[in-house]
Design goal:
Layout: E1 2-8, E2 11-18, E3 21-26, H1 29-35, H2 44-47, H3 50-61, H4 77-86, E4 95-96, H5 97-104, H6 108-116, E5 129-130, H7 145-156
Parallel strand pairs: 4-5
Antiparallel strand pairs: 1-2, 2-3
Helix pairs in contact: 4-5, 5-6
Family: Belongs to the MGMT family.
GO biological process, one term: DNA repair
Protein name: methylated-DNA--[protein]-cysteine S-methyltransferase
Length: 165
């Protein structure tokens, strides 16, 4: 397992991978570094898969860029199903928690909890799932810095959400 911080247009992110497989993206690496028991990886830059970095940079340059990355996502069977549905939502479009829940025969709250547990935000686009009115939450945040990231990601993809929600 390797991890490396990268600069995104909205701040720093921390990317986790194993071999050529993306395993996680932290949107607040300072917060996660406090929880990270792993030693810093001095060789991370030399083994960082070019594919992961190039696709993230392509997306940050063009919100319609698609991710075609091998993923290893740790989660329950239900979470895996939700994340699979999220990956079918095209850039520039959104779905409500209820719409995703209907596809899965589930409840909107359960979809929201699976979105919150998403280990690879951005690549598994939980930011494209919104409330009936307004943004909803993002990675467990309903009013702070992560919600600002969700707003940036959606705006970057061409989605317009009113500022007052």
């Amino acid at each position: 397992m390797h991890a490396l911080s990268l600069t995104a247009p909205f701040g720093s992110i921390r990317v986790h991978w194993h071999q050529e497989t993306l395993t996680g993206i932290d949107l607040n690496p300072a917060e996660s570094a406090l929880q990270d028991s792993a030693e810093p990886d001095p060789d991370a830059a030399s083994v960082m898969p070019v594919l992961i970095v190039s696709q993230l940079h392509a997306y940050f340059s063009d919100g319609s860029a698609r991710f075609e990355l091998p993923l290893a996502l740790s989660g329950t069977a239900f979470q895996q199903r939700v994340w699979a549905v999220l990956r079918t939502i095209p850039s520039g479009e959104t779905r409500t928690y209820g719409e995703v829940a209907r596809v899965l025969g589930s409840a909107a709250r359960a979809v929201g909890q699976a979105c919150r547990a998403n280990p690879c935000p951005i690549v598994v686009p939980c930011h494209r799932v919104v409330a009936v009115q307004g943004l909803g939450g993002f990675s467990g945040d309903t009013s702070g810095s992560r919600l600002a990231i969700k707003r940036w990601l959606l705006h970057h993809e061409g989605v317009r959400i009113p500022d007052h929600h």
